[in-house]
Specification:
The protein is an all-alpha fold and 99 residues long. Helices cover 55% and strands 0% of the residues. 0% of the residues are buried.
Length: 99
């Protein structure tokens, strides 16, 4: 019984010590933060800035312009739908059916 209580007390003491050390050890994630919440750093072997490096995707301006054109067309269709709704009170999704 004496050995059991000694073991129990030793176990509780060790758990208390380990519990006190664990949060500090678990908080470090291997990054070097410049400011709180700003802990980005490149992976080993990658440059800090992508532009001009071999990892730069060098997007084609014509391909990038396609998205802008499609968004302008979408906004024009939505404007037609909204104008038709204001006139008639009915929402027509297909703009080819709007008079």
């Amino acid at each position: 019984m004496k050995n059991l209580s000694l073991t129990l007390v030793a176990g509780i003491a060790f758990a208390g010590l380990a519990g006190g050390m664990a949060p500090a050890a678990m908080a470090y994630d291997g990054t070097h933060c410049q400011a709180p919440g700003n802990c980005w750093e490149p992976k080993p072997g990658f440059p800090a800035k992508i532009a001009g490096s071999k990892y730069d995707p060098k997007h084609d301006p014509k391909q990038l312009a396609k998205q802008g054109e499609s968004m302008k067309a979408m906004e024009a269709r939505n404007a037609q739908r909204a104008e038709n709704f204001k006139k008639t009170g009915k929402w027509v999704y297909d703009v080819s059916k709007i008079e």
